[in-house]
């Protein structure tokens, strides 16, 4: 959205240049790409709206999970990956149960005194909050590969742009970014375009697809984020927030 | 014509909604509900004939909607999409004639599955009979020759089952009761 | 990234004697055997000689899963464990146990279809399988600890998602009546001691990979939904236990217990299970409450939720919260298990002051689970407890056990139904303390021999439910007449086949069952109403064959035979029909190897035949009819001496059963006189080399 158009124009002309010069020398190449970086930075400094992609739109919906109904069957994880990716993979699943299944969110140190099947039975289902602005995973992505997809406005990984750097994984305080080592791409909950497969699959009705609301302040983070946000992206904050 | 179709559609919705919540509905109650939902004009709030015609046609056109006659002569309606004939049969009898209900359930089970029926089951939903009511029915049955076929058997853990001797002999009934109450759980 | 759909592609082989760790290509070596028990029997046939005993280093243990394990196919969480069985008496023969939980799926995600354990470690070890990184680790710190501590300590090393299959003290001490357990409450009986004999304390598996679905993902989604739509409750009971608005039928004995007003009382806040209309696939998990089924209505208020295996929506394990046990017995207020595992504690006692479904019975179950599932004691499908009652109340304990030891047990507590008695008994069995406990820990066959009790006494006793070879019956004539009897003759431990009993107990009226039976086995006469059995016919033999083959198929694919097959359904619009092709549809789409129902059943037959061949080889006998396929005398009796085939008895007739075995052997194309598979049959099923080997030993008919 913001900044897309100019960046694309720059990219396209650069690509034209590369494609047309069959024998562009190494020097020419570096000159050209160097120019790109400067051009991008320049465009960032000058007109933030035409710079990096910053998601502003709210998501329309959210998967809400009731841990008191979760029976630990993991069919949500399996539906998410089998029906979307053609393979069963709790590791890639975009709703995450397995890590809380046995010992709860606080894990092994709580032994049999915490949550999970070994503790009090509660299984917390970790879901993507579809964060409002500022969206940590999107902002951390150096390739602007996490975008908003209508009609749900879910925050979605555009796999064509994803370079597999995993910076998004470092950015999410809830560790909800998945990484598919088969395709070498990040992936995350995209709400299955409005009909979440996990919700449909749950045999105890523990999951609901509901109107979006901000849960980021309500669900405790799992980790402290360690992502590095590209300076040009960070600088765009000033466009709206500068005094 | 369209208006009548609309009335019929409303009637069907009401019947199906009521079935969805696990209950039957009489013609009287349909009329009340139509009024309550504001679906009838003032001229249409007339004697039952108008409703009866609409109901009859709705029944004819929709195979899922059934009519069932209660012992007190009242007709009830339901949709088999949401409420089974079995369940409708139980609902219609339980308040009007629990005696007949118990006998019918016992006879049907003894014939069809075949198996005896635990007495305690009649206290649970949807029968919801009290123990006193059940015992009273059993007492009456014991004295009425219409119900001579209704017999009892007690399992090894003291649970009473009823069966109809028209379809099950005592040994068979006793064996089946034991199997249902004790055997299946002992052979998990 | 997996090469194949379904299969992970590798079989892990670990030699504990040498420390050698290697892998094999699953499809190259075991394609014709699918997985699970298929791989198990193949390995035992090829690599373990006749005469090897259970605790010899030469014995092997094969933890096998199938191509469907780890997928979203409903009910796929089973691991089949094949080995020479310690409680099989008088001689160890091949058998398999099964455990549910998360182990099977995790093994697939780690990249393996099976683990073969060979040899014996020279000191306690545990096996760490972390994707492609496999290590034999020192378990000396874990040795002597219970299953619970062992599991947690391994999870500390491997992370909370790792699945740990561990033995307790019972297995360490080589008590044949011991289990391996994973995921808190999922055990495989009989295997604990074999692992103990190899000094293998546990296997921890962590898998971050995936299982590929070969077929089109939209088609797979449709198929999964079809399968889900056909599910009933536990044991594929397809009618509710009391009348529901949507239900045409109901059955007081059904495990479909959900109803408005029946709540998961210990959930916070409590949850009403409700009507569970069968088209609502988001309520499948509420249908079953096995604690309530076995322990009565009181169990509802103690129910936190259901639990169970990966991918299974049924949740046949019930998680119970009983606050009273904490103060009373010093045990955690939470416990979970199902069926025989749930009833472990209760089954010892003849009676309780407040009855079999009172509070004390529940407490006995909690104590039993707490002890047995940590010590890793097995109960041989309730035979341990039945034997215990008989041995006590018939004065045999008193006679066989020295006075001092006998008096060291609080028998008054036992007779009063005091659950604290279990604290005296179960640890002693696990630790082989004393003659009584040691004998019990051997299993029925060896116990009878040790104490000079003729097996005949057990074979005649109507209440002990003993069948043969040291094991009890498992769904026999009480469930399905001759079909059940045939099934129970075929294995080297209790049959563990539910194909037939799931059907006969599904709760549908007999006329509906007969209609379905006609479609499945050729005639409505294949099934009788329970206790109204009729003489043998060829269709019952067909049903027996189908039951056995499907059980074997499930054990190879990783499908739960306690749920399948799915030939009946709760759907009126299908006239309660299920789908006899579900297994082949799932297999074909998941693996990309298209097989029809008949083709897959043929593979199952091959695997079942290999089990038969192994039994013949290791018994050194070809006359299976008289030497192996035996039936206890009590099957031919009735407490009221009612005649066979009269209404109200499950008594079988000797001549009729002879005919039943004839017809079964014919159905299987085995030699009718001996019940031994013929060379032609072995060949037809691709087991020509097996036939040759048996021929060399003079074991072909």
Structural write-up:
The complex is a heterotrimer of chains A (243), B (188) and C (701). Mean pLDDT of chain A is 86; it is low at 1-5 and 21-49. Chain A is built from eight helices and seven strands; from the N terminus they run ααβαβααββαββαβα. Chain A is 33% helix and 11% strand. With 188 residues, chain B is α+β, with helices and mostly antiparallel strands. Chain B has two domains: 2-91, Orthogonal Bundle (Arc Repressor Mutant, subunit A); 97-186, Arc Repressor Mutant, subunit A. In chain B, helix 1 crosses helix 3 and helix 4 (85-94) runs antiparallel to helix 5. The longest helix of chain B has 19 residues, at 2-20. The mean pLDDT of chain B is 90. Among the domains of chain C are: 10-206, Aldehyde ferredoxin oxidoreductase, N-terminal domain (Aldehyde Ferredoxin Oxidoreductase,  A, domain 1, 4-Layer Sandwich), CATH 3.60.9.10; 474-696, Aldehyde Ferredoxin Oxidoreductase Protein, subunit A, domain 3 (Orthogonal Bundle). Chain C has a six-stranded mixed beta sheet. The mean pLDDT of chain C is 97. Chains in contact: A-C, B-C. Chains A and C meet through helix 3, strand 2, helix 4 and helix 7 of A and helix 4, strand 13, helix 7, helix 8 and strand 16 of C. Strand 2 (87-88) of chain A pairs antiparallel with strand 13 of chain C, so a sheet runs across the interface.
């Amino acid at each position: 959205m913001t900044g897309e158009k100019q960046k694309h124009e720059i990219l396209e002309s650069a690509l034209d240049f590369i494609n047309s010069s069959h024998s562009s020398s190494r020097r020419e190449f570096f000159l050209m790409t160097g120019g790109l970086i400067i051009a991008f930075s320049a465009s960032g400094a000058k007109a933030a709206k035409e710079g990096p992609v910053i998601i502003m739109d709210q998501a329309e919906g959210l998967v809400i999970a009731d841990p008191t109904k979760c029976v630990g069957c993991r069919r949500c994880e399996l539906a998410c990956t089998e029906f979307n990716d053609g393979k069963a993979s709790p590791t890639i699943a975009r709703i995450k149960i397995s890590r809380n299944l046995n010992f709860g969110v606080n894990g092994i140190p709580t032994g049999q005194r915490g949550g999970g099947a070994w503790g009090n039975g509660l299984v917390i289902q970790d879901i993507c909050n579809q964060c409002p602005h500022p969206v940590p995973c999107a902002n951390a992505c150096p390739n602007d590969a996490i975008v908003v997809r209508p009609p749900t406005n879910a925050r979605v990984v555009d796999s064509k742009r994803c370079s597999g750097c995993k910076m998004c994984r470092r950015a999410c305080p809830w560790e909800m970014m998945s990484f598919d080592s088969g395709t070498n791409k990040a992936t995350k909950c995209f709400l299955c375009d409005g009909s979440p497969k996990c919700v449909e699959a749950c045999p105890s009705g523990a999951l609901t697809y509901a109107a979006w609301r901000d849960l980021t302040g309500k669900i405790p983070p799992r980790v402290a984020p360690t992502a590095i946000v590209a300076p040009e992206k960070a600088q765009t904050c000033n466009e709206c927030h500068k005094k | 014509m369209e208006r009548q179709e609309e009335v019929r559609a409303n009637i069907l919705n009401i019947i199906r909604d009521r079935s969805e919540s696990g209950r039957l509905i009489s013609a009287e109650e349909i009329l009340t509900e139509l009024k309550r939902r504001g679906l009838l004009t003032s001229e249409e709030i007339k004697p039952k004939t108008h409703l009866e015609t609409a109901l009859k046609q709705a029944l004819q056109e929709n195979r899922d909607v059934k009519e069932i006659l209660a012992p007190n002569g009242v007709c009830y309606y339901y949709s088999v999409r949401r409420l089974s004939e079995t369940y409708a049969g139980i609902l219609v009898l339980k308040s009007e004639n629990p005696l007949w209900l118990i006998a019918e359930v016992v006879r049907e089970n003894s014939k069809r599955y075949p198996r005896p029926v635990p007495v305690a089951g009649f206290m649970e939903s949807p029968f919801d009979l009290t123990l006193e009511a059940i015992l009273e029915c059993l007492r009456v049955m014991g004295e009425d020759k219409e119900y001579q076929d209704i017999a009892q058997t007690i399992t090894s853990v003291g649970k009473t089952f009823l069966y109809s001797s028209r379809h099950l002999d005592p040994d068979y009934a006793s064996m089946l009761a034991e199997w249902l109450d004790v055997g299946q759980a002992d052979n998990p | 990234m997996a090469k194949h759909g379904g299969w992970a592609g590798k079989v892990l082989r670990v030699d504990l004697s040498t420390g050698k760790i290697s892998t094999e290509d699953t499809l190259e070596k075991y394609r014709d055997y699918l997985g699970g028990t298929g791989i198990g029997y193949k390995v035992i046939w090829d690599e373990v000689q006749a005469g090897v005993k259970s605790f010899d280093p030469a014995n092997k243990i094969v933890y096998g899963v199938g191509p469907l394990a780890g997928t979203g196919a409903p009910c796929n969480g089973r691991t089949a464990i094949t080995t020479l069985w310690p409680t099989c008496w008088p001689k160890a023969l091949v058998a398999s146990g099964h455990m549910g939980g998360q182990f099977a799926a995790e093994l697939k995600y780690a990249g393996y279809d099976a683990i073969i354990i060979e040899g014996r470690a020279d000191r306690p070890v545990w096996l760490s399988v972390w994707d492609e990184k496999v290590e034999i680790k020192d378990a000396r710190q874990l040795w002597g600890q219970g299953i619970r501590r062992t599991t947690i300590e391994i999870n500390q090393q491997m992370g909370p998602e790792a699945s740990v299959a561990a033995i307790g003290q019972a297995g360490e001490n080589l008590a044949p009546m011991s289990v391996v357990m994973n995921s808190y409450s999922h055990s495989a009986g009989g295997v604990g001691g074999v692992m103990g004999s190899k000094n293998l304390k546990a296997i921890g598996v962590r898998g971050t990979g995936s299982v590929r679905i070969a077929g089109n993902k939209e088609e797979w989604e449709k198929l999964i939904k079809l399968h889900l739509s056909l599910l009933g409750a536990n044991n594929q009971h397809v009618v509710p236990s009391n009348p529901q608005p949507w239900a045409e039928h109901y059955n007081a004995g059904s495990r479909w217990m959900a109803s408005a007003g029946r709540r998961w009382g210990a959930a916070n806040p409590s949850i009403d299970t409700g009507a569970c209309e069968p088209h609502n696939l988001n309520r499948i998990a509420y249908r079953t409450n096995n604690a309530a089924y076995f322990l009565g209505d009181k169990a509802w208020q103690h129910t936190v939720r259901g639990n169970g295996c990966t991918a299974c929506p049924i949740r046949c394990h019930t998680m119970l919260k009983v606050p009273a046990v904490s103060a009373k017995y010093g045990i955690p207020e939470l416990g979970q298990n199902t069926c025989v595992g749930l009833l472990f504690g209760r089954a010892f006692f003849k009676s309780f002051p407040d009855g079999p479904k009172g509070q004390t019975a529940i407490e006995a179950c909690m104590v039993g689970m707490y002890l047995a599932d940590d010590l890793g004691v097995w109960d041989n499908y309730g035979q341990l407890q039945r034997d215990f009652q008989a041995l006590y109340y018939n004065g045999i304990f008193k006679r066989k056990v020295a006075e001092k030891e006998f008096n060291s047990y609080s028998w008054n507590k036992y007779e009063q139904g005091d659950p604290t008695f279990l604290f005296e008994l179960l640890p002693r069995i696990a630790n082989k303390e004393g003659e009584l406990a040691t004998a019990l820990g051997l299993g029925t066959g060896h116990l009878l021999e040790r104490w000079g009790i003729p097996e005949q006494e057990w074979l005649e006793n109507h209440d002990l439910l003993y069948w043969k070879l040291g094991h009890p019956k498992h769904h026999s004539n009480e469930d399905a007449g001759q079909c059940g009897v045939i099934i129970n003759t075929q294995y080297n431990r209790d049959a563990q086949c539910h194909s037939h009993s799931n059907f006969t107990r599904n709760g549908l009226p007999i006329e509906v069952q007969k209609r379905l039976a006609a479609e499945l086995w050729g005639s409505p006469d294949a099934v009788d109403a329970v206790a109204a059995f009729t003489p043998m016919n060829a269709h019952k033999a067909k049903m027996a064959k189908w039951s056995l083959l499907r059980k074997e198929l499930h054990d190879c694919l990783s499908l739960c035979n306690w749920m399948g097959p799915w030939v009946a359904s709760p759907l009126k619009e299908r006239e309660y029909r299920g789908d006899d092709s579900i297994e082949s549809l799932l297999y074909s789409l998941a693996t990309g190897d298209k097989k029809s129902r008949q083709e897959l059943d043929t593979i199952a037959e091959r695997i079942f035949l290999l089990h038969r061949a192994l039994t013949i080889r290791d018994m050194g006998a070809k006359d299976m009819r008289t030497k192996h396929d035996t039936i206890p005398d009590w099957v031919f009796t009735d407490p009221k001496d009612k005649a066979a085939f009269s209404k109200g008895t499950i008594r079988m007739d000797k001549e009729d059963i002879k005919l039943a075995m004839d017809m079964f052997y014919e159905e299987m194309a085995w030699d009718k006189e001996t019940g031994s598979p013929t060379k032609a049959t072995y060949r037809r099923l691709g087991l020509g080399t097996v036939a040759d080997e048996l021929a060399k030993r003079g074991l072909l008919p």
